[in-house]
Amino acid sequence: MRSSILLSLGLLGATVTGGAHAALGPSQLALVVNDNEPNSVALAALYREAHQVPEKNIIHVQLDPRARKLSPEDFAPVRQQILAQLRPDIRAVLMVWTAPYAVGCNAITSALTLGYDADQCNTPCGPGKPSAYYGDANALAPAAAAMRISMLLPTTSLDLGKALIARGTMRNFRLPQASAYYLTTSDTARSSRARLFPPSGQVKSHELTIRNMRADVLEGVSDIMVYQTGMVKVDKLDTLKFLPGALADHLTSTGGDLLGTSQMSSLRWLEAGATASYGTVSEPCNHWQKFPQPAVLLKRYLSGDSAIEAYWRSVAWPAQGVFIGDPLAAPYAR
User: Fold this and answer.
1) Edge to edge, what strands does the sheet with 201-203 contain?
2) Which segment of the chain is annotated as a signal peptide (predicted)?
3) What angle do CA 66, 96, 37 make, to 5 degrees?
4) Which residues does residue 92 pair with via DSSP β-bridges, in sequence order?
5) pLDDT band at 1 (very low <50, low <70, confident <90, very high)
6) d(CA 281, CA 11)
7) What band does 13 get if pLDDT is binned at 50, 70 and 90?
8) Do the Cβ atoms of 331 and 142 come closer than 8 Å?
């Protein structure tokens, strides 16, 4: 297994040395604004200006921002309204709100991109349907290229949203010291993807150090580009410094229940300084395929993918998972 991960990463950098490419561009992103939420309207305007998203890419909907979950019947006309306004050149959609973030047992991002998956809700702990977008190859298959992948930009706080947008707009900068941290914790059930963590080493072409650790917590480091772990709650986030464009997520059942309190919400990653994250909205059990595959995520990001592209490329069964953050963040893009 470790040897296959090394090969997947291109022997720690051999295949990503010159592989950076043009990531998803602002003209290829649609912004969906909830006119019933003032923060959605304000942050969508700020995002469009910061990233120079064309005004013609804006789509307006009217949703109850207090609703964390929509029924499939209520979501169907909203999805149709959004899809009907996407031009052929649009490759991704950013919904500018925190809630609603679920459709039945599905995440709203997968329900928009792939359509509502009723079978998954019949057996939430069962296997999911494979995503055509999953994989670490440089070229997308035709089915994947036709997909409109999606993400949420949280709007719970204007200050958080502004800071997130500022981090996401930084591209082509020289990273002083960057590390990708992978923690195998004492929580065995939530460490189901630990065997997929890339081994410690250097990706010299990108000035990145991979740090594969056995620990329950990361504390006091200031060079984080990737942080992946498995815990109900990740401690010491207030002691960490994330670099612009950083990706971070934890394997747990309801990290995607963004406004829930039973487990740590994936919003905590963004509040701590990460630029994008992921979590499941309903009980997935600990199938690693329902969470970001570490080696694929790292390879795609280092190859120049944007945050939304790298995250979608890394989740094999995404029905229950919500993608959040700034989709256009791409610190390694050409």
Assistant:
1) 58-61, 29-34, 92-96, 149-152, 321-325, 276-280, 242-250, 224-229, 178-184, 208-214, 201-203
2) 1-22
3) 40
4) 29, 149
5) very low
6) 35
7) very low
8) no
Contact 168, 275 (CB under 8 A): yes
At residue 268, the pLDDT reads: 98
What letter would DSSP give residue 173?
P
- Under DSSP, the state recorded for 188 is S
CB 47 within 8 A of CB 95: no
Element (H, E) at 298: helix 294-302
Domain ranges of the chain: 22-174+252-325
CB 276 within 8 A of CB 301: no
Residue 122, exposed/middle/buried by CB under 10 A (0-12, 13-18, 19+)? Answer: exposed
**What backbone phi and psi angles, to 5 degrees, belong to 96?**
-95, 80
CB atoms within 10 A of CB 55: 7
pLDDT category of residue 23 using cuts at 50, 70 and 90: confident
CA 93 to chain CA centroid, Å, is 13
Could you tell me if 330 and 24 are in contact, meaning their C-beta atoms sit under 8 angstroms apart? Answer: yes
Average the pLDDT over 297-306 and give the result.
Answer: 96
Q: What is the pTM of this model?
A: 0.94
Query: How deeply is 255 buried, as exposed, middle or buried, from its count of CB atoms within 10 A (0-12, 13-18, 19+)?
Result: buried
Task: Identify the weakest region by mean pLDDT among 170-179, 213-222, 257-266, 272-281.
Answer: 170-179
21 pLDDT band, cuts 50/70/90, is low
Asked whether the beta carbons of 53 and 70 are under 8 A apart, the reply is no
| DSSP letters spanning 221-245 | ---EEEEEE--SS---GGG--EEEE
Structure tokens, 129: 């349907």
User: Would you place residue 176 in the very low, low, confident or very high pLDDT band (cuts 50, 70, 90)?
Assistant: low
